[in-house]
Write a structure and sequence with these properties.
Layout lengths: L2 E7 L6 E3 L5 E7 L7 E9 L2 H6 L5 E2 L3 E2 L6 E2 L10 E10 L4 E3 L3 E5 L12 E2 L6 E9 L3 E11 L1 E6 L2 E2 L15 E8 L7 E10 L27 E10 L4 E5 L6 E4 L2 E5 L3 E5 L18 E2 L1 E2 L6 E4 L5 E8 L2 E6 L2 E19 L5 E7 L1 E2 L5 E2 L8 E4 L7 E3 L6 E9 L12 E12 L5 E5 L2 H17 L17 H5 L1 H7 L3 H14 L24 H4 L1 H13 L3 H19 L25 H22 L3 H22 E4 L6 E4 L12 H9 L4 H14 L9 H13 L3 H8 L8 H5 L24 H10 L1 E5 L4 E4 L9 E8 L2 E10 L2 E8 L4 E8 L5 E4 L2 E2 L3 E5 L2 E8 L2 E8 L4
Parallel strand pairs: 2-10, 16-25, 22-32, 40-44
Antiparallel strand pairs: 1-3, 3-7, 4-5, 4-6, 4-8, 8-9, 8-10, 11-24, 12-17, 12-20, 13-16, 13-18, 14-15, 14-17, 18-19, 20-23, 21-22, 26-35, 27-28, 28-33, 28-34, 28-35, 29-32, 29-34, 30-31, 36-41, 37-38, 39-40, 41-42, 42-43, 43-49, 44-48, 45-46, 45-49, 47-48
Helix pairs in contact: 4-16, 5-7, 5-8, 7-8, 8-9, 9-10, 9-11, 11-12, 11-13, 13-16
Length: about 900
């Protein structure tokens, strides 16, 4: 039987705090049978769980809808109310008209309209961290309870002696003049009859940044604090079984505040904590807060309160120490075995007032001590309470990139009674709670390890933005959202986070229409580091990725005006009749370099931006816009080829290739030939010449690409059926090389093609991950967000086996491909309600293919001189075997 599973509200990681009056529904399907398809669906929604079980008193009943659609179903029922719980479920019918219902799902709305929160923003009136608490009483049995809360810069919420939820560093980073996120928690199980306690702990974040005496990257680069004091807000909606509701809100009258034991909360990874100042039990019962001050009602932030739609940051893994060294006397280096975005926890004991210094880092100095890029000063200090017991501490409001943690000011053996004893160090790996959706293994463990270290770098930089690194900058450079997006989407479900990134770009857009390279724009760079189209075009490329991968139209619909404004801005900066000649070009081709072949790279993105915007206009029914942007794309294409495509070589060997604007031709530059091939800028009559130029540039099988061109280099070569070249580039023993990182023992991907990269936890060069899943494992979407799936594994002749899976927006896709001397074997599984095109390499038209020991017919196609067999299948599991016909 086919059944609906993994139901969700589109654009929201959690079904709590949905702040749209028109939610969008979606689901996946499961079945053990082949060729299963959905022919009808029905969605129902009500205020009571019993109502959706009994199909009575419904606020919405879609009826039995004849459709195979399972994504993007828009609510069409009675108007929803703010801060209200609803229940819904889905029924589907298969092709045999067999009905199956889903489990009942909960939906709790946030604020849907322009209502003003009745709660007030409170705080101590200072820019230093603070605690806030209140007590309230309940009478009667509680049916459900929800908390809608925020605190700027970051907050932690406590109730009745325990932290609420696994979240770290809530709320997400935003442009606080445009939007401020609140978080909704189900706190039903936190409420007890009688007395209850709520506690807030609030730190600085980017809202009112505090450098202390340490590294704060954006200070000096245009950072301006958003607020003059730290603030918090919260509303608790507690519904009793009898239907009555108790409201608890932040307000000046019933809340108390005091300074925090966290005396420095530097978002760049430095915190000071004085345990002597910590009010033990402050968020629990029987605590005397008579010495605390009454909370001050403070000015609201400028931005609108919106629900935190993206996944929260949580602790993914806790790493134990695997080795300890003492390179200098009483300087201890704890090796956690993994470079991570970490909150580093210490276990210490010792006299009151003694101090421990914690210095995490990704690098080591020659003397073995921890090093940081550019010698940046980042460390935390813990001052002991001196309880006589082992004291545990980890930061509350920041993380930092490190594998090693240097501990100073301690002994390990208690030999100096004036100093504390360090007992242990652990690393709490913090990352976005985006779900894992990919798995890949090959018979070459180095390739498997390569995929893993790229994923670790991805995880370290998936926060509430996609950051560049957890050490130096922590900024949301937006180009990786589009360039690395396909790689990331193979291994992580980032639909909601990428929508948030789109909104960040919209909020960062200038009055002139520029999309800055960073969003939120906490610091203002200049020149290409603020205005480079490979970055700014993410406002167009990211919505396209969301549509192609998740069937999500929201980003496209919301960002369309911003796309138009950005294209208007770019047109105002055109040169030579249609070229874009400013920006960073193929950034990163050598450490910290850009500006190479700017007009070639930037103008190709300009063309693609026009082309996609024309496509979006068609989707939106804007015919004149679609025609206009299509004409602009064609104009830029003509200019691109007129100015940059040149005839090269001697008279007898004349051929065409892309050159600089001044006519200079570099036969070893791979990107200037690959990008126009990938984007479709090459007219058919010149295709063979450009492909030849690319093959010549890649003939040494050595990477010659930076961050911007890398994805398109791999994609262009794959399109020419030259995955063998990509494979050899990946496996080069010396830099530029991926496998060198593996063989040197890196545990996350470094920033540049060098052994001594400044950042050792940077995913911007990780585009090979998309190639591994799309070309080696062979999984890709043909149309409509995996409605039709291509399975085309490409490891034949490269490796003997690749196995893995990708859980698409429609369900799990599994591939196990083996290449042996006797032939090829492929096991594949496709989710219900999808179809597949199986594409396998064959040696001749004499090849035979079996599926589950049955001879099958197939289509033969030739591409770039190679033969492939194509078989079309429905959903389910299949076993294929390719054999050359016996003589």
């Amino acid at each position: 039987m086919m059944r609906p599973v993994r139901l969700k509200i589109n654009n929201y990681y959690s079904p709590l705090g949905i702040d749209t009056a028109i939610p969008i529904f979606g689901w996946q399907l499961e079945s053990e049978q082949q060729n299963q398809s959905q022919t009808y669906y029905r969605i129902i929604l009500a205020k009571r769980e019993e109502s959706v079980i009994d199909c009575e008193q419904l606020l919405w009943d879609s009826g039995k809808v004849s459709s195979s659609e399972q994504l993007g179903i828009v609510y069409q029922g009675q108007p929803l109310q703010s801060v209200t719980a609803y229940y819904w479920r889905v029924a589907v019918w298969d092709q045999h008209d067999v009905l199956a219902w889903s489990e009942v799902q909960t939906l709790f709305t946030g604020y849907l309209n322009a209502e003003t929160w009745k709660a007030e923003w409170i705080g101590s009136g200072e820019t230093k961290p603070f605690y806030a608490r209140t007590e309230f009483a309940t009478e009667g049995r509680v049916k459900c309870a929800y908390a809608l809360v925020s605190g700027l810069g970051h907050f932690k919420l406590y109730m009745n002696g325990e932290k609420v939820g696994p979240n770290e560093m809530d709320p997400g980073w935003t442009n606080y003049t445009k939007s401020v996120q609140y978080v909704c928690f189900d706190v039903t199980d936190r409420i007890r009859e009688g007395s209850n306690v709520i506690g807030f702990s609030v730190g600085n974040g980017f809202y009112a940044g505090d450098a202390g005496d340490r590294h704060f990257y954006t200070i000096g680069k245009g950072y301006v604090p958003y607020g003059a004091e730290l603030i918090a807000i919260g509303e608790w909606h507690i519904e009793y079984e009898d239907g009555s509701v108790l409201y608890v809100r932040t307000e000046g009258e019933n809340w108390k505040v005091r300074e925090s034991a966290t005396t420095l909360a530097n978002v760049y990874g430095s915190e000071n904590f004085d345990a002597r100042l910590y009010p033990n039990g402050w968020y629990g019962f029987a605590f005397d807060d008579s010495g605390w001050e009454t909370a001050k009602v403070l000015a609201s932030p400028v931005g609108n309160l919106v629900s935190q739609n993206q996944p929260p940051i949580t602790v993914r893994t806790v790493y134990d120490t695997i080795g300890i060294e003492e390179p200098l006397e009483q300087v201890y280096i704890y090796d956690l075995g993994q470079n991570m975005s970490g909150m580093f926890e210490i276990y210490v004991s010792g006299p009151a007032g003694s101090k421990v210094t914690i210095k995490p880092g990704e690098l080591r100095n020659e003397d073995g001590t921890v090093a940081t890029p550019w010698d940046i000063v980042t460390y935390s200090e813990y001052t002991l309470a001196g309880t006589g017991e082992i004291e545990l501490w980890k930061p509350d409001f920041s993380c930092f990139g490190a594998r090693w943690v240097q501990i100073e000011g301690c002994t390990r053996d208690g030999s100096d009674k004036s100093k504390p004893i360090i007992h242990d160090v652990k690393g709490h790996f913090v990352t976005s709670a985006s779900e894992d959706v990919g798995r890949l293994e090959t018979d070459d463990p180095r390739i498997t390890k390569l995929a893993q270290i790229i994923i670790k770098a991805i995880e370290s930089n998936l926060q509430s933005v996609h950051s560049d690194c957890p050490t130096i900058e922590k900024l949301g450079w937006v180009e990786t959202a589009s360039l690395m997006g396909p790689s990331i989407m193979y291994v992580k479900s980032v639909e909601e986070l990428w929508l948030k990134i789109t909104r960040d770009m919209m909020e960062a857009q200038t009055e002139e229409g520029l999309i800055p390279d960073i969003a939120p724009e906490y610091s203002r760079f200049s020149d290409g580091f603020r205005d480079s189209i490979a970055w700014g075009s993410a406002i167009i490329l990211v919505p396209d990725l969301l549509m192609n991968t998740y069937g999500n139209r929201t980003a496209m619909e919301e960002a369309y005006p911003a796309m138009k404004a950005y294209l208007d801005y770019l047109k105002s900066r055109e040169e030579d009749g249609g070229l874009i000649n400013h920006g960073l070009g193929d950034w990163g081709i050598a450490p910290q370099t850009g500006g190479d072949y700017v007009e070639n790279v930037e103008t190709a993105f300009y063309y693609e931006s026009y082309r996609l915007t024309s496509k979006f206009a068609s989707f939106l029914g804007l015919v004149s816009d679609a025609e206009h942007y299509a004409a602009e794309a064609e104009r830029v294409k003509r200019c691109y080829n007129a100015k940059l495509l040149r005839r090269i070589g001697s008279e007898g060997e004349a051929r065409y290739a892309y050159c600089r604007l001044n006519g200079e031709f570099d036969p070893l530059n791979q990107v200037v030939q690959a990008i126009p091939l990938y984007f479709g800028l090459v007219d058919e009559e010149y295709r063979s010449d450009i492909e030849s130029a690319l093959l010549h540039a890649a003939s040494g099988r050595q990477l010659r690409s930076g961050e911007i061109g890398l994805r398109y280099l791999f994609g262009a070569l794959a399109g020419m059926k030259r995955n063998d070249i990509v494979f050899d580039m990946m496996m080069q023993p010396e830099h530029p090389s991926y496998i060198r990182f593996v063989e040197r023992g890196e545990t996350a991907l470094p920033e540049f093609w060098t052994d001594d990269s400044r950042s050792r936890n940077h995913d911007m060069m990780g585009h090979i991950l998309e190639w591994l899943y799309k070309e080696l494992l062979g999984i890709s979407s043909v149309r409509n967000a995996y409605k039709e799936i291509l399975i085309a594994p490409g490891c034949s002749g490269l490796i003997q086996r690749v196995t893995g899976s990708h859980r698409s927006v429609r369900g799990e896709i599994h591939v196990d491909f083996i290449s042996e001397a006797s032939g090829l074997r492929l096991a594949v599984s496709l989710p219900p309600n999808t179809s597949g095109m199986i594409k396998l390499p064959i040696a001749s038209d004499e090849t035979v293919i079996m599926e589950s020991d049955t001879l099958i017919n197939f289509e033969i196609v030739q591409e770039h001189g190679r033969l492939f067999a194509i078989s079309r299948v429905g959903s389910g599991s299949y076993q294929f075997e390719v054999r050359e016909k016996a003589v």
